[in-house]
Amino acid sequence: MTEKSLRPVRFAPLALIVLALVLALVFRVHEQLSLDLLRARRVELDAFVAGHLATALALYALVYIAAVTVSLPGATILTLTGGFLFGPWLGGGATVVAATLGATGVF
To answer: Of the segments 17-21, 25-29, 83-87, which one has the largest average pLDDT value?
Structure first.
């Protein structure tokens, strides 16, 4: 293939990020990121984390990575959620790793 025929392909990652952001905004995902929702679901979230720590940590990290990658509003709420669910050390560590991976995804 020539260099000219590959040009549209290089925009594919950007197109995927924009598509993910548009879908997140259309489905109002950012509205689900609130401290009120965390307070209302505290019992269920605590039970899930207690019974499935690795799964909960992985899900949290994936959501954080996706939010940072598509620049979805709500990173502050997600950061607080990490501490709320996993405590300051484990939650803080997961947040740093997820934020780094999300920022890498943007670049």
So the answer is: 83-87
- Please name the residue ranges forming H helices in the chain: 3-6, 12-26, 35-40, 42-51, 53-69, 75-106
For 63-102, write each residue's pLDDT tens digit.
899 888 877 777 888 899 999 999 999 999 999 999 999 8
Residue 33 and residue 31: Cα distance in Å, rounded?
5
pTM assigned to the model: 0.74
Written as one letter, the residue type at 5 is: S
Return the structure tokens found at 65. 């990575």
Q: Which residue, among 23, 42, 102, 22, has the nearest Cα to 67 in the 3D structure?
A: 102
Contact yes or no for 60/82 (Cβ under 8 A): yes
Q: What is the C-alpha to C-alpha distance for residues 38 and 103, in angstroms, rounded to an integer?
A: 25
In this structure, the number of other CB atoms found within 10 A of the CB of residue 26 comes to 8
